[in-house]
Design brief:
Helix content: 25-40%
Strand content: 5-15%
CATH topology of the largest domain: Aspartate Aminotransferase, domain 2
Radius of gyration: 22 Å
Mean pLDDT: 96
CATH superfamily of the largest domain: Type I PLP-dependent aspartate aminotransferase-like (Major domain)
Order of helices and strands: HEHHEHEHEHEHEHEHEHHHEEHHEEH
Length: 379
Amino acid sequence: MEQKSSKSLQKLSGLRRDHKGLINLMPLQTGGMLTDAAREALTEFADGYSVCDFCQGSLCNITNPPIRDFVQELLPQFLGCEVATITHGAREGKFMVMHSLARPGDSILVDANRHYTTFVAAERAGLSIIEVPSSGHPEFRVDVNEYAALMKQHAPKLILLTYPDGNYGNLPDARRLGEIAQEYNVPYILNGAYAVGRMPISMAETGADFIIGSGHKSMASAGPVGVLGMKKKWEQIVLRKSGRHANKDIELLGCSVRGVPLMTLIASFPFVKERVAHWNEQVSKAQWFSAELEKLGFTQLGERPHRHDLLHFDAPELYEISKRVREKGYFLYKELKERGIWGPQPGLARSFKLSTFAADRQQLGFVIDSFKAILSKYS
């Protein structure tokens, strides 16, 4: 028993990532790759609660390091909101709003392309979930005008739009939904986990009441960490304080991220703020890459023309190969890894997701050539 325990402990040392250094097309990672400044902060603030050295009781009021300036000035400007805070991730931000503004048995209206955590957060809050349908295969578009009829029918306490969704990279008309939300006087949550930090987006311009971002998905930070922006009128409800511990937010269980993820988020922020200005280049690159893969017989799912770096492909040729090789769907993962490429989820060949965000055109050209070589090898 002692020998087995010793072997188990040995596994915990010298930990390494198999895919580090490969061309990274993994949608969960491309927008969260750390800057050099963030890697320095990672080491500097790695010890325990090191960000709390000069805390007076409120994380978002700490001046050294400059968390207060970031949360109270820079972040609201960036998000186009009036008040902002730090969360443990997008899912926690969604739950905070749901739990604060609705009660068990109330309804929430969400898009059919919503992330699974939207559903789970609503379940945890005890809410009844109504979905606005998508157009289905192949574009899976969400027409936000369809929210109106369901709002009349169900009188939801909240509505939520995923912008973009994590499956197809679709960008519904968030501004139009803001007009509908104001018409029906229903608070509107914009889940921008794959938008905030990648592309220009403003809560105020969309008419949303809340905007949610993910640091580790799209703001070049370690995880988990997220951001939540809101209108000033919701501050006393969502960020209400404890009756006994006056500096502590109830929904955040006092404080949220108290260490490395927050400091990497802050350290990367100047770079992130600048990179969103180049979003048109990212869209052009994604469209070019998609067109090249479609020449190989793949079919891009989601909206056309596509306006995001997250891409989803049907690949019938690869699926046919997977049915006759020993590795089944894992053959694609193996072939790409051998060529220095990390992206599609291991085991998937019939359809897969990629993100072009972190790769340059030369690297993407190599990826295209690699798919050509794989198809040729098994033809």
